[in-house]
Design brief:
Strand order of the largest sheet: 1-3-2-4-5
Distance between the termini: 37 Å
Number of domains: 4
Radius of gyration: 22 Å
Shape: globular
Largest sheet: 5 strands, mixed
CATH class of the largest domain: Mainly Alpha
Number of helices: 25
Strand content: 5-15%
CATH topology of the largest domain: Glutathione S-transferase Yfyf (Class Pi), Chain A, domain 2
Structural class: alpha/beta
CATH architecture of the largest domain: Up-down Bundle
Helix content: 40-55%
Number of strands: 9
Length: about 475
């Protein structure tokens, strides 16, 4: 891919995502009105910034650079802005737009030959943005609504009834066909289009006993969106772990792990959720905490950094991190004992960014799936490019998210697979919406649901439309 001339300014370019934004020119460093972008409390590390040699290997894997070809919307461009902030440049609206545009997919971390820890840089930067930048009233209201709802299970549960009634009414087809909501409130339209068809909620007991000889005792995170919008994934997780000889402990008092807060710079909120999660699983007395949502697992493995300054939790957080495993990671470590029944199906496996890039877990889910007789696994072209979900990014940036989702859907359809398998609820919602929009009929399932179907000898119809 051709690399554009390096842009020296952080001023916004002509771009649909920036329509209506107020951009301020840079204030000269040393001006009485200039306040440096970053304070002294954990700004992005100058040492980590210096690791970037501007080689450009990150560019073809960066979703926003792929979309717009703009240097400041690439990882190395954002690193330049971070460096400017450390040197005293003020935090302008245009600078924040470039930081906000980052999906946090970490594809650049995988691609970087110099080992640049962009994940740590962007998360530190986002804390500074939330601390010092004043957002527009509309943006503040949307973010406040999102964070008042999604991290809270009871509030999500209360939403289930009205959402199921809406879905049963036939109104979704009318709303989407009219395009009215897209024109009047594109962010609300994005949320409406992403909502999955709700499954029947299956209440899990606090302890699911191992089948046969007990090999381990594990705790299980049920999650917020996963638990309320994809309860079948949690039920399948408990069954598979039990079938593989695990007593599964499901703490009743567990809440949000804080993933959305961590990834969006909401530091105090993230710390509160992290402390609560540690408390819940410490009380459960388990040696391993199993997670079936890629974004949650990625953040829980960062608790040592999140709580590094908390004297009461710093050491506990380090001990907790050592216990956290993605479900595919853990099952691969444990080894399979439950018999697999054949599944005659061709699947396309999609690497969720926070599983593949952030946690480095790629081979384990593939190895588990290949243990199933009759199953054929297809790789997806441009696998490194994010589907556009990225936590709440697809709600805050509906148009570019749709472009990325449609691109991913086309690549998935090109495999000829009849079932898409991935490991994150956000990916399932994003890709499902894009596949539906382009008229591709395909089943969608979490990795653990496929394993569950094979172990139980269930028909493929249980994994969605074929």
């Amino acid at each position: 891919m051709a690399q554009p001339t390096r842009v020296q300014s952080d001023e916004p370019q002509s771009d649909p995502r920036k329509a209506g934004a107020q951009a301020h020119g840079p204030v000269p460093i040393g001006s009485p009105t200039a306040r440096p972008a970053f304070d002294d409390e954990h700004p992005p590390s100058a040492e980590l910034i210096s690791d970037c040699v501007h080689c450009g290997f990150c560019l073809p894997t960066c979703p926003t650079y792929t979309l717009w070809g703009e240097e400041m919307d690439s990882p190395r461009g954002r690193i330049d802005l971070m460096k400017a902030g450390l040197q005293g440049a003020p935090m302008t609206d245009s600078m924040v737009q470039h930081f906000d545009a980052c999906l946090g997919c970490m594809a650049c971390v995988t691609a970087c030959p110099s080992g640049v820890q962009y994940d740590k840089l962007i998360e530190a930067t986002r804390v500074q943005v939330e601390r010092h930048h004043t957002r527009s009233p509309g943006d503040r209201a949307m973010r406040a609504a999102i964070f008042a709802l999604f991290p809270y299970k009871r509030r999500l549960r209360a939403l289930r009834g009205p959402l199921r009634a809406y879905q049963a009414s036939g109104l979704p087809k009318v709303v989407r066909r009219s395009g009215l909501l897209d024109r009047l409130a594109p962010k609300l339209a994005a949320m409406e289009g992403l909502a999955p068809v709700l499954e029947k909620r299956e209440k899990l007991p606090e302890r699911v006993p191992a089948v046969g000889q007990r090999r381990a005792v594990v705790g299980m995170l049920t999650g917020c969106v996963q638990g309320e919008f994809f309860p079948g994934v949690n039920a399948a997780t408990a069954r598979v772990l039990a079938a593989e000889g695990c007593d599964v402990v499901i703490p009743r008092r567990q809440g949000c792990c804080g993933a959305l807060s961590v990834h969006n710079g909401r530091q105090e909120e993230a710390e509160r959720f992290a402390r609560s999660t540690i408390d819940s699983f410490e009380a459960a007395g388990v040696d391993t905490v199993v997670v079936n949502a890629a974004g949650c697992g990625s953040s829980m493995k960062e608790y040592a950094e999140v709580l590094a300054d908390d004297p009461a939790y710093a050491e506990r957080a380090r001990a907790f991190v050592a216990k956290v495993r993605d479900v595919s990671e853990y099952l691969a470590e444990l080894g399979s004992v439950a018999p697999r029944h054949p599944l005659e199906v061709t699947i396309a496996y999609h690497d969720a960014c926070h599983l593949g890039h952030a946690q480095g877990i790629r081979q384990q889910p593939r190895a588990l799936l290949r243990e199933i007789p009759g199953l054929q696994l297809k790789e997806i072209p441009e696998a490194e490019i994010c589907c556009g979900s990225a936590g709440i990014w697809n709600v805050l940036n509906p148009e570019p998210a749709r472009e990325l989702g449609d691109r991913k859907a086309r690549n998935i359809a090109s495999t000829g697979a009849t079932l898409l398998v991935t490991a994150n609820p956000g990916c399932l919602m994003q890709v499902s919406s894009s596949l539906e929009r382009q008229g591709t009929r395909m089943g969608l399932a979490h990795t653990i649901e496929v394993l569950d179907a094979s172990i139980r000898g269930l028909p493929l119809s249980t994994l969605g439309p074929q």
